[in-house]
C-alpha cells in the first residue's frame, strides 16, 4: 500500500514537477492560438456549407415526393 502524503509534501512535489515543465514561449502560444482559431473557422465554414447543401438536396427530394 502507498504511504500517505501530507498536504505540505504534496505541494512540494507539485512545485518540483512544475519546475521540470518546458513552458512554451509567448510567440509559440500566440501562433498555436491563431492556428486553432483558423481551423475553427475553416471547420465551421465547411460544416455550414455541407449543412446548406444537404438541406437544399433534402428540400428537392421532399418537394419531388409531394
UniProtKB/TrEMBL annotation:
**Molecular function (GO) terms listed?**
protein transmembrane transporter activity
Transmembrane segments annotated in the record for this chain: 30-50
Q: Which UniProt keywords apply?
A: Cell membrane, Membrane, Protein transport, Translocation, Transmembrane, Transmembrane helix, Transport
Keyword Plastid among UniProt keywords: no
Task: State what this protein does.
Answer: Essential subunit of the Sec protein translocation channel SecYEG. Clamps together the 2 halves of SecY. May contact the channel plug during translocation.
What family is this protein classified in?
Answer: Belongs to the SecE/SEC61-gamma family.
Q: What is this protein called?
A: Protein translocase subunit SecE
Protein source organism: Xaviernesmea oryzae
